[in-house]
Amino acid sequence: MPSSENSIAEKRHTLAHLLAAAVLERYPHAKPTIGPAVDNGFYYDFDFSGGNGAPGEAELSQLEESMREMLASWNAMTGTEVSEKDARDRFSSNPFKLEIIDGIVAAGDPITLYTAGDFTDLCRGGHSEHPNKDIKPDSFTLDRVAGAYWRGDETKPMLTRIYGLAFDTKDELDAFQAQREEAKKRDHRKLGKELDLFTFSDLVGAGLPLYTPKGTIMRDMLAGFSEELQRSYGFQKVWIPHITKIDLYKKSGHWDKFGDELFLVKSQESSDEFALKPMNCPHHTQIYASKPRSYRDLPLRFMETTTCYRDEKTGELSGLTRVRSLTQDDAHVFCRMDQIEQEFENIMTMIKKMYGTLGLSFKARLSFSDPANPAGYLGERSQWDEAEAILEKIAKKLDIQYFIAQGEAAFYGPKIDVMVTDAIGREWQCATEQLDFVQPMRFELEYTAEDGTKKTPVMIHKALLGTIDRFLGVFIEHTAGNFPTWLAPVQVKVVTVSDKQMEYGQQVLQELLAAGVRAELDTASESMGKKIRNAKTEKVPYVLVIGDKEVEDKTVTVESRDAGKLDPLPVSDFIQKTLAEISTRS
Fold first, then answer.
1. Is 284 in the active site?
2. Which end of the chain is more exposed for a tag (fewer CB within 10 A), N or C?
3. Which residues pair with 504 in a beta bridge?
4. Is 558 left (phi over 0), alpha (psi -120 to 50) or beta?
5. Taking the C-alpha atoms of 401, 405, 406 and 409 in order, what is their torsion angle to the nearest 10 degrees?
6. What is the CATH number of the domain that holds 371?
7. Is residue 160 part of a domain?
């Protein structure tokens, strides 16, 4: 029977202690600092200064062997509460542990030490009670060595962090490592460069991607699909500027929550303070507020594909999946209470259509508030209870596979987050739809009800792709760069056996381009085999091979990336089949 999440976390935490014990055995001068359990394993940070050497990647196998030897004698892990004096005496030579003790004392929490075998550490608990019985010796491995600042603060000492992987069984460990190796092959940063989709420049800045012509085609095609779906459900396109007075975000509440993530803009002419927009919803409220609204006008649906800017920390940036300039297929619905369910059904229908077309399965995360942290959210508790009840009712009505995640809500309302599973089993958050009672009230939005009274509309935030940059990174890895024909930057590559067929090759190319097929003719002075291999490396869906026979018969021989070599056929027939594939996004 699989272990609970708490159980695997306890094993990982215990292994962090075991790692510290093994390090101290081989490097007595080391000063252990902290060692938590993390996703897929654990780590421990050490200060190796003031002594002879520190372990590198080459020494991990030796430390791992020491851990296994020690594990056999770790019959139990027991905790003891001690006085501040006893704790300080025990760790008197370790300034990092003394700093931790300072924090525990300031918080008024008990100080506990945990012991297994001959090793004792300062810790608040959460371990395997019987490590040598609970932890299988082949279920963990040491993974890598990295640098890390103490407390994540660049002004504090640089430490050595040793990472480990740990699972309940060896099979799970092996599966994770195999998945990770496959993920390296699919890394969108690697494929993005190989397929010439995007680049980064130090002169432009970290987290600010630059898209090549091929990458821009993909962005435009994805955004176009999203807008097509939205138009079919009554969304109207709007446009807003990329900067705004910070007063807008102070009124919306974003300034208090995310003020440190804003890029501020100075004006030489005005005393107003401006910022690059980090999100679009406050702007859209002002379009709604620009004229009187009636109950007959609702729902109003505004959509926009636009770029926002957030000052993400450099260490958190990651290719396209975490950027500072993020383009969103953003939209907002302003509606009455009795229209909420239908609007959410419409949005979820669009999401199902989009992700079904793209070959991605998903489940829904109902991201709710944390009742234990009321200060983290705006609005009344009763509003939150009502909004969360509505979202769960909709999820049940639409028969969506879902789970509830408390504490994952936006500060202004709960949401349904689409959690996509990619081809190698990893989960990514992409699309989202959020219910918001708070911002319409903060901006004093209103409409005239049927009885003539003034009422406040409800606001629904929606994105089908989410951040297009992030989605593109996910989709590149999901497909390993083998994009469907409708989305591929180059859909057809024309290859001639020799220069003798080049004239007919040019004719075929022009017919493809005239029909709207994205095609290229390989004019390089290379063998036909090399040209075909190049096209396959570029992951082009179709290669049209032209030799003397094809010129004579006015045909092309088709090599499909996904179906292999096909029978020769007239160019017009190939174009017809390809256009049908493109138009249906099949």
1. no
2. N
3. none
4. beta
5. -90
6. 3.30.930.10
7. yes
CB 33 within 8 A of CB 132: no
| Beta strands 300-309; 402-406: pairing state | unpaired
What backbone phi and psi angles, to 5 degrees, belong to 187? -50, 120
The Cα–Cα gap between 514 and 508 comes to: 10
Write down which residue in 441, 457, 479 finishes a domain: 479
Q: Which of 45, 329, 330, 469 is catalytic?
A: 330
Whether 422 and 525 share a structural domain: no
**324 shares its domain with 442:** yes
The one catalytic residue in 332, 365, 493, 539 is 332
User: Does residue 12 belong to any structural domain of this protein?
Assistant: yes
- CA dist 334 and 331 (Å) reads 10
Which of 479, 512, 542 corresponds to the end of one domain? 479
**278 domain residue, yes or no:** yes
| 436 classed as catalytic | no
Q: Are 317 and 219 found together in one domain?
A: yes
pLDDT per residue as tens, the chain (586 positions)? 334 445 999 999 999 999 999 999 999 999 999 999 999 999 999 999 977 789 999 999 999 999 999 999 999 999 999 999 999 999 999 999 999 999 999 999 999 999 999 999 999 989 999 999 999 999 999 999 999 999 988 899 999 999 999 999 999 999 999 999 999 999 999 999 999 999 999 999 999 999 999 999 999 999 999 999 999 999 999 999 999 999 999 999 888 877 788 999 988 888 889 999 999 999 999 999 999 999 999 999 999 999 999 999 888 899 999 999 999 999 999 999 999 989 999 999 999 999 999 999 999 999 999 988 888 888 788 888 888 998 898 888 888 889 999 998 888 889 999 999 999 999 999 999 999 988 999 999 999 999 999 999 999 999 999 999 999 999 999 999 999 999 999 999 999 999 999 999 999 999 999 999 999 999 998 998 999 999 999 999 999 999 999 999 999 999 999 999 999 999 999 999 999 999 999 9
Look up 415 and say whether it is catalytic: yes
Catalytic: 328?
yes
Domains held by the chain: number:
3
Task: Let me know if 29 is a catalytic residue.
Answer: no
Q: Which of 123, 281, 335, 430 is catalytic?
A: 281
Owning domain of residue 570: 492-583
Q: How much is the pTM?
A: 0.85
Catalytic residue among 230, 328, 491, 501: 328
Are 42 and 114 in the same domain? yes
Q: Active site includes 353?
A: no
